[in-house]
Amino acid sequence: LRLDRFRIDHAAYEAAGSGQWIATGEGQRCALDFDLASDDARGLLAAFGFAPLVEADRSRLTARLTWPGAPDAEVLGRLSGTAALEFGKGRLLAVDPGAGRVLGLM
């Protein structure tokens, strides 16, 4: 299955990319390439379930990911590839023990 291109328009971000799910005699393999941009870093973090502890005028996430198997809910433990997260001019809103989850992403 090939997804030549997709686009997501969310209130907090826009994303575009492509992907594939390939089945061979050796098993299944998936790939996902995408670029995500936002002018609402707090909304972006909240949309993905993270505490909105960063305020920035822009943010961007670029990822090139692959994993063995099908696209399922357990994919995070099998991911490999690259991802880059950039924040523009902004600030950390709070740093406390709960902020480690956000800072761990950076």
Q: Care to describe what's here?
A:
With 106 residues, the protein is mainly beta. It has helices at residues 41-47, 100-103; strands spanning 2-9, 14-24, 27-38, 54-56, 59-68, 80-87, 90-92. The strands form 2 sheets. The protein has a 5-stranded antiparallel beta sheet, with no helix packed on it. Strands 4-7 form a two-stranded antiparallel ribbon. The chain is elongated and about 50 Å long. The model has no long low-confidence stretch (mean pLDDT 88).
Quick rundown:
The chain is mainly beta and 106 residues long.
Summarize the SSE layout with pairings.
Blueprint: E1 2-9, E2 14-24, E3 27-38, H1 41-47, E4 54-56, E5 59-68, E6 80-87, E7 90-92, H2 100-103
Antiparallel strand pairs: 1-2, 2-3, 3-5, 4-7, 5-6
Could you describe the largest sheet, including whether it forms a barrel? 5 strands, antiparallel
Low-confidence stretches: none
Count of separate DSSP helical elements: 2
What gap, in angstroms, lies between the N and C termini?
A: 32 Å
The shape, in one word, is: elongated
Series of secondary-structure elements, N-terminal to C-terminal: EEEHEEEEH
Roughly what fraction of the amino acids lie in strands? over 45%
Mean pLDDT: 88
Which secondary-structure class do the elements indicate? Answer: mainly beta
Strand order of the largest sheet: 1-2-3-5-6
* Secondary structure: number of strands: 7
